[in-house]
Amino acid sequence: VDRDVSTSFTYLQEKLCAVFPQLKQKTFSVSWTDEDGDIVTIGLDEELIIALTEMPGPVYRLTVNVKAQKKEEKAKNTEKDSQQEGKIHHGVTCDECEKQPIEGNRYKCVVCDDYDLCGSCEAAGKHPGHNMMRIASPEMVFHRDFSS
What we know:
The chain has four helices and eight strands; from the N terminus they run αββαβαββββαβ. The chain is of the alpha+beta class.
């Protein structure tokens, strides 16, 4: 991690999601253990600075805790997933597993000219380093304008 951003909690969260793509759809917290053995949750830049100051370096041990989904939230997500299953993106192939057509959510790379992933490949982090745009409905059409 670059020194310029080493004390940014937001950057830390984004970096964790980039390294562990499965965290993108989860709610998680970051904590550390102080010298008394207490677990301290980090939620702000100032708290991250305190953790980095208090822990002996050069390696810092942080713990990521994924929060469990509530029953109603799980039911809502399952309902959403089943609704998405009926969405078929005709003429679109997953550039990783070559599934055609993509069913459910389609993920389009916002950096590459023509790169799409199915939901499974996106969840598995198959195209790291580039931001992906979720396209839930096949009716959503996005045009890229390269003119200046």
